[in-house]
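Listing S7. Sequence submitted for prediction.
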Amino acid sequence: MSERLKKIKDQFEDLKIDAILIQNPINRKYISGFTGSSGILYISKNSSILFTDFRYIEQATKQAPDFKIINYMSKGLYEEINELIKKENIKILGFEGEHVSFSQYKQYTDKLNTSIIPIYNVVEKLRMIKNDIEINYIKEAAKIADKAFNHILSFLKPGITEKEIALELEYFMKKNGASDLSFSTIVASGAFSSLPHAVPRDKKLENGDFVVMDFGCIYKEYCSDMTRTVVIGKASDKHKKIYETVLTAQMLSLDGIRPFKQGKEIDKIARDYISSKGYGEYFGHGLGHAVGMEVHESPRFSINEEELIKPGMVMTVEPGIYIPEFGGVRIEDLVVITQEGIDNLTTSPKELIEI
């Protein structure tokens, strides 16, 4: 039995359940290893079963050795689960409350012959702490992204469009070992760079533009995430002041990260500094978030985050300033929390680059 599966079963007594259904694709993959698009895990004290359909039987058998694989298409999923409920005398069955729709919940309560209760963040809490293998995968994803940034610097010039930059970053990362993107690449230039989650356009780069590039890739199911901002042409004093404020806020935050601090304590470092320079109203998002099999995980560096950061967590540190009608700056590194502080996985230069 894998350590992850054992940790789920060990929680049953505290959760006051006899079994649990796990259907969120990322959580299902994390616990079982199964990467197919159709499946649900049934885990009890005595059973570990992956229900899937005919298309994935062979794949599931290879990927999920700790689970008995059952094709639910012949009897039906609820009939199969009800047989287990009766056989194992399941009095209370948990399900992932944050991932099940109301319609799905109604089907559970209508068709399953036992008490059904929501359980929250059971797998997500396990996913917060990464082991050495997971961290090494994330490191490799971060290396690929760093190489992509170094590559894109020679590609940037006036007249190139945001879409062309995004496409080049994506092509380079996949050509150099990434299996996919962590998220849709963000490239935003000029005044449009004041939108934190801008979508690349056909707009061409011009002298005097800030260019924000936020991108990442997936390596062996694990994500990276980084952001760099450059200026096309000569940076003005206004460009420099905004950029230096963000850079200093980020460096202070990186220096202040220690295990067992609350996420909001780290967020406050950057927020206080940016506010002291008169830009507080232009920093409207959290300082960072955890990264793993998903690019946005818990915990976070944010105003209200009380979760303690711990060794083994992988977090972004990404302060930003966004001035409407002018532009924005974001600088983002990916770090591993260690016993002493951090291991910064992002190595790309952070001084202001003029193209």
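Caption to Listing S7: primary sequence and predicted structure tokens for the chain studied. The chain has two domains: 3-127, 132-344. The chain has eleven helices and 19 strands.
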